Amino acid sequence: MPDDAAGWRGSADAWARTVLRVLGTAHPYAAGHVSAGPDDLTVDPRRLHPAFWGSFDWHSSVHMQWSAVRLLTLAPEHLADATRRDLVELLDERLTPAALGVEAAYLRDHPSWERPYGWAWTVALAAAVAGCPRPEAERWSAGLAPLSTVVAEHLLGWLPRLDHPVRHGVHANTAFALALLHEAYGALGRADVVAAVAEAGRRWFVGDRDYPAAWEPSGSDFLSPALCEADLVRRLLPSAAFGPWLAAFLPGLGGPDDPLLAVPEVRDPTDGQSVHLVGLALSRAWQLRLLTPHLPAGVQPQVASAAAQQEAAATAQIVAGDFMATHWLVSFALLAATAATDGMITS
Questions:
Q1: Cα–Cα distance measured from residue 79 to residue 15, given in angstroms and rounded to the nearest whole number
Q2: Where are the domains of the chain?
Q3: What's the pTM value of the predicted model, to 2 decimals?
Q4: What is the mean pLDDT of each run of 10 residues along the chain (347 residues)?
């Protein structure tokens, strides 16, 4: 990241232009659509998903639009006039009641679609728009409200039926999604959903101890299961209780041989699965920064330095990498860059 006075905001315009470029790229596209029969064969992304096409897949389109909103909210003065105008025009085209109505209907008809990762980013987008000061955000919010309501209905029905959380480091990771949903629905005023998320998170994770950090990462992880769980529990426990929990869950965190501090090696940045490890570096940087204040003072400098190294190692891929990297990394770069304050997802 830039080390000038602007900090990460010195990258804002380049990140925004990347968002615009990948959201305008219709193909390649991984539809993920499950055909219901011989007459249901279309995978045209613009037809299936008029709001969330482009950027390779549905969830990436959602969270790259989240990135657009965050850049307009947090760094408007660091965007060129044309970039700022283009971001607003893109969101005006995508976040319409008509287009989002199609998305809400699709999600209602396909209740396991994008569960839980895409659900979480959808609600994060709605919450970010609700916190955006731009005048256009009011109409974007109106369009997104039905979609976040459908996700809430699905989530409230699904959580009691889920016997065990998913603990791996890709999209189905339960703790990552619950952390985003907890914050986003809190910002949207859905106390019932926040309570359901908190209950599930406590039930699954608060009793955990001695996580085997040496087993990370897997070869296609873009999330650390250990750090995702720790970040979720951080949100659910009082600070005085969380510090002892973290010490018991990750007793080696910040130590000299801690594998969670090492920068992942990416041997093929054009491979969609291998390049996940670039995102892992960014998600680790984000979550390590959130956890650092809860660690013993003696290890905090080492953890902070490791987070900076993880972030720096990913920088070249965010804008100049292969499409397998650029179609999604801006979002995780923003999470890493804004981790100094809570509400980094929504406000």
A1: 10
A2: 7-31+44-337
A3: 0.96
A4: 68 98 93 67 80 97 98 97 98 98 96 97 98 97 98 98 97 98 98 98 98 97 98 97 98 95 95 97 97 97 97 97 97 94 68
User: Which amino acid is located at 109 in the chain?
Assistant: D
Contact partners, residue 150, CB within 8 Å, separation at least 6: 104, 107, 108
63, 55 in Cβ contact below 8 A? no
Q: In 3-state terms, what secondary structure has residue 55?
A: coil
SS3 state at 92: helix
∠ Cα 120 197 206 (to 5°): 115
Nearest Cα neighbor of 159 from 194, 200, 193 is 200
**Tokens 């960014």, residue?**
282
**C-beta of residue 154 within 8 angstroms of C-beta of residue 111:** yes
**Structurally, what CATH architecture does the domain formed by 7-31+44-337 represent?**
Alpha/alpha barrel (1.50)
Give dist(CA 301, CA 295) in Å, integer: 10
- The DSSP result for 208-261, as a single string, is -----GGGPPPTT-SS-HHHHHHHHHHHHS-HHHHHHHHHHHSTTTTSTT-GGG
